[in-house]
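Weekly puzzle thread! Below is a chain. First person to post its structure in C-alpha coordinate form gets bragging rights.
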Amino acid sequence: MTDFKARCLDVIRKVEKSRKAVTIRRRGKAVARLEPAQPGPEEQKPWEQLRALGGSLRAAPGESVFEDQQFDAQR
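Winning reply:
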Protein backbone atom coordinates (compact mmCIF):
# COMPACT_ATOMS: atom_id res chain seq x y z
CA MET A 1 0.00 0.00 0.00
CA THR A 2 2.90 2.38 0.67
CA ASP A 3 4.13 2.16 -2.94
CA PHE A 4 0.60 2.91 -4.21
CA LYS A 5 0.30 5.95 -1.94
CA ALA A 6 3.72 7.26 -2.99
CA ARG A 7 2.85 6.92 -6.69
CA CYS A 8 -0.51 8.64 -6.21
CA LEU A 9 1.10 11.54 -4.36
CA ASP A 10 3.71 11.82 -7.13
CA VAL A 11 0.96 12.07 -9.79
CA ILE A 12 -0.90 14.66 -7.71
CA ARG A 13 2.26 16.76 -7.36
CA LYS A 14 2.89 16.60 -11.12
CA VAL A 15 -0.66 17.78 -11.87
CA GLU A 16 -0.34 20.54 -9.30
CA LYS A 17 2.98 21.73 -10.73
CA SER A 18 2.20 21.41 -14.46
CA ARG A 19 -1.48 22.52 -14.18
CA LYS A 20 -2.26 19.80 -16.79
CA ALA A 21 -4.82 17.02 -16.42
CA VAL A 22 -3.78 13.35 -16.22
CA THR A 23 -5.85 10.40 -17.39
CA ILE A 24 -5.63 7.40 -15.06
CA ARG A 25 -5.81 4.05 -16.85
CA ARG A 26 -6.34 0.46 -15.75
CA ARG A 27 -5.19 -2.14 -18.26
CA GLY A 28 -5.10 0.52 -20.97
CA LYS A 29 -8.68 1.70 -20.36
CA ALA A 30 -9.29 5.23 -19.05
CA VAL A 31 -11.01 4.98 -15.66
CA ALA A 32 -10.51 8.45 -14.15
CA ARG A 33 -9.15 11.90 -14.84
CA LEU A 34 -7.23 14.06 -12.39
CA GLU A 35 -7.42 17.79 -13.17
CA PRO A 36 -5.88 20.76 -11.38
CA ALA A 37 -8.33 22.48 -9.08
CA GLN A 38 -9.72 25.86 -10.09
CA PRO A 39 -9.13 28.49 -7.41
CA GLY A 40 -12.25 29.19 -5.39
CA PRO A 41 -13.45 32.74 -4.66
CA GLU A 42 -11.65 32.75 -1.31
CA GLU A 43 -8.34 32.06 -3.09
CA GLN A 44 -8.78 34.73 -5.77
CA LYS A 45 -7.68 38.31 -5.43
CA PRO A 46 -10.57 40.85 -5.38
CA TRP A 47 -9.94 42.04 -8.95
CA GLU A 48 -9.89 38.43 -10.18
CA GLN A 49 -13.28 37.87 -8.53
CA LEU A 50 -14.66 40.95 -10.29
CA ARG A 51 -13.23 39.83 -13.65
CA ALA A 52 -14.92 36.45 -13.22
CA LEU A 53 -18.30 38.20 -13.00
CA GLY A 54 -17.90 39.52 -16.54
CA GLY A 55 -19.27 42.87 -17.63
CA SER A 56 -17.86 45.64 -19.71
CA LEU A 57 -15.70 48.68 -19.20
CA ARG A 58 -17.73 51.86 -19.55
CA ALA A 59 -14.88 54.35 -19.37
CA ALA A 60 -11.26 54.58 -20.38
CA PRO A 61 -8.72 53.81 -17.66
CA GLY A 62 -8.42 56.89 -15.47
CA GLU A 63 -11.73 58.29 -16.75
CA SER A 64 -14.79 58.37 -14.50
CA VAL A 65 -18.29 57.41 -15.56
CA PHE A 66 -19.61 59.81 -12.88
CA GLU A 67 -19.80 63.59 -12.97
CA ASP A 68 -18.08 65.54 -10.17
CA GLN A 69 -21.49 66.54 -8.77
CA GLN A 70 -22.46 62.89 -8.42
CA PHE A 71 -19.44 62.26 -6.22
CA ASP A 72 -20.50 65.07 -3.93
CA ALA A 73 -24.04 63.70 -3.79
CA GLN A 74 -22.72 60.30 -2.68
CA ARG A 75 -20.98 61.72 0.41
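Puzzle host: Confirmed. Bonus trivia for everyone else. The beta strands are 22-26, 29-34.
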